[in-house]
Amino acid sequence: MKRALVCTVIFACVALMAAGSAFAGTQSNVKIALYAMAVPAKNACSTNAPSNLACDSVGGTSNLVVQAPTNAAQDVYLVALDVATGPGLGGVSLGLSYSPTIAIFGAWNKCADQDFAGNGWPADGGGDAITYATCAGQTPDPSDPQGDGAVVLGYITYLYAYGDGVMAVTPRNFITPPDFKAADCAAAESNLPAANAGTIGFGAATGYQPCLPAAVPVQNSTWGGVKSQFSGE
């Protein structure tokens, strides 16, 4: 029975990401951020995962690490922030883009129950539908001033930047139409705006933390290239 339930929930999430939902979404405030850190030894999805992120979507601040050095190995985490804890998080769909100065020598490691990667993920231009069989994000993050949830989606190991460059969350641009979405645990999906997608800047390049008020802020020059990957923006 448990296995059947898990399969049913995962199937629902995959169908949701592929075809859309008839239900109104509840997770339109979700931010998908990137977080750079030195390579942890173990327990990368639990005790050594990013924490105390303090995503303040009213004050516009956070503890996200969105600047990283060049010529030094880094792990890069994908984190869902500002999750409405009542409906919880059932899944997200997103893509990834990065400069040619950035190379991945490790691999993608999911912290979710299941994921459905495409187009060479986590390669530049790849994408993933990340799903939870057990509802995620229903416990408020103690560091979040608004009491929202935070969910570690997974991480990429041994990323190395040989020069200045940017890694960015994008839609899944290899599917038609491209999608950048969050779904709650009742399989109701929300389209996420470009301003809810984070970046990491390596070297002199500037990263972007998306814990900001609802109005899209004025961005630095790096944002233009990222925003162009969102249809209609």
Overview of the structural elements:
There is one protein chain. The chain has a single domain, classed as Immunoglobulin-like (Sandwich). The protein is built from two helices and 13 strands, in the order αβββββββββββββα. The protein has helices at 2-19, 221-227, and strands spanning 31-37, 67-68, 74-83, 89-98, 102-104, 108-110, 114-118, 127-136, 149-161, 165-170, 181-183, 189-191, 199-202. The strands form two sheets. Strands 2, 4, 7, 8, 10, 11, 12 and 13 form an eight-stranded mixed beta sheet that branches. Strands 1, 3, 5, 6 and 9 form a five-stranded antiparallel beta sheet that branches. A hairpin with a 5-residue loop joins strand 11 and strand 12.
Radius of gyration from CA coordinates = 16 Å
User: What is the β-strand count?
Assistant: 13
CATH architecture: Sandwich
The CATH topology corresponds to Immunoglobulin-like
Q: Please tell me what the overall shape is.
A: globular
Structural class call reads mainly beta
In the CATH scheme, the class would be Mainly Beta
